[in-house]
């Protein structure tokens, strides 16, 4: 009974956020444009030579994806905390972690998934070979999902803070460094002709660890932000 | 039951303030003695390394600070966890007091590592696994202190930064091993091998004395800083008039 109510509440949160994003489309597209702009910077700063760029293409795509998902995270909880919705969720008696996870999931569908879909195009512009597409997308799929939860913790902690966006990056980027290491290493390995399963499995392990413990931390952080 | 009454008595600011004041010299003087002894032993008495010559002697500052940087993070996270679970303000204050000490140790480890790297590797900075994870640890400390500083309400700062410290301490091993895996240029850890340490025992003894000295120094510093933290938080309390 209780569980059914929790799932339907989480589903409602998920659908509500998708609908809200549908009506304010620019918040979804802006991080994507930022993603493309950042990747354009690297050839300009280094070299237009595709064979040179190919060596760093996996890393560049990953760094750009990391930065643009951080950019999108800042506003994750802000409006809900400001208009009192979050307070109602805290008081609703439903497990707060589940509701927040649903919110993060819809956020990931809106910001993480488009990055994953765009990444082969961006990668190809940097000379990424076709063989590496699958690995790049799979690594980004796991990586952006993990980052959404990690960033959700950061966003929950900084929701009521002045200059929250800089602080958010400062808090989340060091925690996201293992993702960057494994993700770009997987792409490099497949370009060198090795099997990328090692780093991909480690990425999956980090994803499941974050997925299981992250909502607890997010709920604790939101409670602190709302109660005081 | 008695433990709880004891804990609550200890955790009351006036009592803790007095106790920390009495404890501090018991940490401070032995720390000074041990650090001086280890410095003399390590810099003068210990034999020079057959490969690195006298340059290896910076190890006596580098390794203990690297050890203390991680030790302090764990202390900070445990204190933050205690504060979060049992709502003990003193534990939060201890976490707040520990963070700058840990950041300083991390910075010291980075600086000495880079000075050591100049004669050994020929450059000031090498993207080697352990230096890089120290650098990320410094970022974690800075993030923690930045989050704490960004709240006006001390209680909220305490609890929010406590969540961050706990998330951080779960991530520290992941970061450490991912960086390790990312590159392994550094010589493998030679002290933690318990069966047969690969550095000579004559070099090892001063290192352990130095680590003990650093630990005691940490005890002294946390006593002093925690007293300062209590003063800052209780600046309007009436008990301060009688305390000294």
Explain what the structure shows:
With 228 residues, chain A is mainly alpha-helical. Chain A has one domain. Chain A has helices spanning 2-23, 26-45, 50-73, 78-82, 85-91, 96-125, 133-157, 164-191, 197-227. Chain A is elongated, with a radius of gyration of 18 Å. Chain B has one domain (29-44, 51-243). In chain B, helix 3 packs parallel to helix 7 (201-233). Chain B is globular and about 60 Å long. Chain A binds chain B through residues 153, 157-158, 161-163, 167, 170-171, 173-175, 177-178, 181-182, 185, 202, 206, 209, 213, 217, 220-221, 224-225, 228, and chain B through 84, 136, 139-140, 142-143, 146-147, 150-151, 153, 155-156, 159-160, 163-164, 166-168, 170-171, 174-175, 178-179, 181-182.
Largest sheet of chain A: none
- Tally of individual domains of chain A: 1
Taken as a percent bin, the fraction of beta residues of chain B is under 5%
> Terminal Cα separation of chain B, in Å?
31 Å
Count of runs of 4 or more consecutive helical residues of chain A: 9
Beta fraction of chain A = under 5%
Report the principal-axis shape of chain A: elongated
State the helix count of chain B: 7
State the order of secondary-structure elements of chain A, H for helix, E for strand. HHHHHHHHH
Which stretches of chain B of 5+ consecutive residues score pLDDT under 50? 191-197
**Protein structure class of chain A:** mainly alpha
Q: Give the beta-strand count of chain A.
A: 0
Q: Sheet bearing the most strands of chain B, described?
A: none
* Average predicted local confidence, pLDDT of chain B: 85
Q: Structural class of the secondary elements of chain B?
A: mainly alpha
What is the typical, i.e. mean, pLDDT of chain A? 89
Our count of domains of chain B comes out at 1
Topology order of chain B in helix (H) and strand (E) letters: HHHHHHH
